[in-house]
Amino acid sequence: MKALFSVLLFWFLHVFPILSLLTPVTQNAEAETHMEKQWQGAGTTLSLEEVIIGRCYNYIRVVNPSVGEKNCSQIWEAFKDAFIFKDPCKVLPKDYEPFIRLTVHDVPLNKSLFWENSQLLVRRYADNTKRMMPLDGTLMGWLAEGLAWCGHPGGTGMNYKSCPTTDECEHNPAESFWRIASEAYAKLAAGVIHVMLNGSVSDGAYPVNGFFAKFELTNLIKDNILNIQIWVMDEIEGPDNESCGSKTIKLLETTLQEDGFQYTCTDNYKPVRLLQCVDFPTHHDCLCAHPLLQLSFLPSQAHLPVLFILSTSPRQPVAQSLQSQLHLCSILHSFPANFVVKFRKVSVGSDHSATAGADISFKAH
Ligand SMILES: *[C@@H]1O[C@H](CO)[C@@H](O)[C@H](O)[C@H]1NC(C)=O
Ligand SMILES: *[C@@H]1O[C@H](CO)[C@@H](O)[C@H](O)[C@H]1NC(C)=O
Ligand SMILES: *[C@@H]1O[C@H](CO)[C@@H](O)[C@H](O)[C@H]1NC(C)=O
Ligand SMILES: *[C@@H]1O[C@H](CO)[C@@H](O)[C@H](O)[C@H]1NC(C)=O
């Protein structure tokens, strides 16, 4: 009896007050989880406002002051108004029009850089707008890059738990943002423009449903464009699944021809290749960057045939058999600039007979 009483007393004095305190909180949390559907994508980046306003001032004051004065608070308001308190599946590209109008600025001649599947390499090459200005090097892209955001009907108006992916609903805040931003960016392209594609992907270096094909290529202003340079970059140590003139790159080339654009296509464009090599300094693709080593007649190191340097001009003819790409590399670098080096490709049969091919001349360096 006494024990029962003390249990009851304990409940009244301790557990009840705690439970009654807890109940409203639990109800609120339940209400929130009921409202907040769980999406596949990450929730709104915490401190979104501070991040965007901070990025905005960093851009206009430090990264690219040439864009001139902008009102970063007003830019944040315009960004927020596109999605806050809204159903995260009902945000359209046009909802960001005020934001685009406030952030838009010129992209310098010859500095446009479009891409698919190569964002990190693009960013390194672009070097914070110093070398190139891809979309995320413009103010509008810079502000949103790498962030997640979406609305919620109640509370703070933002869903910090999860946001829909494009597979879940097409008209989500991020997808709609990047669509209108890509369209606006494409319209600013002028002069020689560039497209970096990834030759190591297996599902299409030029995806016909990608942002470049759907929102950028279709919005280029042809009269402003001199030439389109396509760069197909393979990963070092990665597969070489696509190259200029084949598969989806050929499709892109045909599309550009039909649309009347001048273009060039380069596999493993050297300045970008050199940047990739920073992470693979001892890889054989990186040891010697002489253009000769990128010529198609040179097979991989493992199957290198015997090559003879027939003559160098104005030096006396020499004959050398090359053991490896590295050997070729060191020979080439031993010549002063502007020496003409003549090669003859020689195939060696199983009986060790040698068949000479045509001479090929190059300038060393
Ligand atoms: C910037 O925009 C905010 C919000 O729209 C406004 O209150 C403020 O006066 C503007 N500042 C300037 C300097 O125009
Ligand atoms: C842009 O590229 C074209 C063609 O190479 C060149 O003639 C022009 O001087 C370049 N303009 C700038 C600003 O770099
Ligand atoms: C290129 O594609 C490969 C294969 O999908 C990927 O591993 C690599 O990170 C991509 N390269 C860049 C620069 O994004
Ligand atoms: C791309 O390369 C990888 C590795 O070599 C290979 O497994 C894959 O089948 C290739 N894909 C295509 C479409 O060629």
UniProtKB/TrEMBL annotation:
<protein>
    <recommendedName>
        <fullName>ADP-ribosyl cyclase/cyclic ADP-ribose hydrolase</fullName>
        <ecNumber>3.2.2.6</ecNumber>
    </recommendedName>
</protein>
<keyword id="KW-1015">Disulfide bond</keyword>
<dbReference type="GO" id="GO:0030890">
    <property type="term" value="P:positive regulation of B cell proliferation"/>
</dbReference>
<dbReference type="Pfam" id="PF02267">
    <property type="entry name" value="Rib_hydrolayse"/>
</dbReference>
<keyword id="KW-0732">Signal</keyword>
<dbReference type="GO" id="GO:0061809">
    <property type="term" value="F:NAD+ nucleosidase activity, cyclic ADP-ribose generating"/>
</dbReference>
<dbReference type="GO" id="GO:0005886">
    <property type="term" value="C:plasma membrane"/>
</dbReference>
<feature type="signal peptide">
    <location>
        <begin position="1"/>
        <end position="20"/>
    </location>
</feature>
<keyword id="KW-0378">Hydrolase</keyword>
<dbReference type="InterPro" id="IPR003193">
    <property type="entry name" value="ADP-ribosyl_cyclase"/>
</dbReference>
<keyword id="KW-0808">Transferase</keyword>
<dbReference type="GO" id="GO:0016849">
    <property type="term" value="F:phosphorus-oxygen lyase activity"/>
</dbReference>
<keyword id="KW-0520">NAD</keyword>
<dbReference type="GO" id="GO:0016740">
    <property type="term" value="F:transferase activity"/>
</dbReference>
<comment type="similarity">
    <text>Belongs to the ADP-ribosyl cyclase family.</text>
</comment>
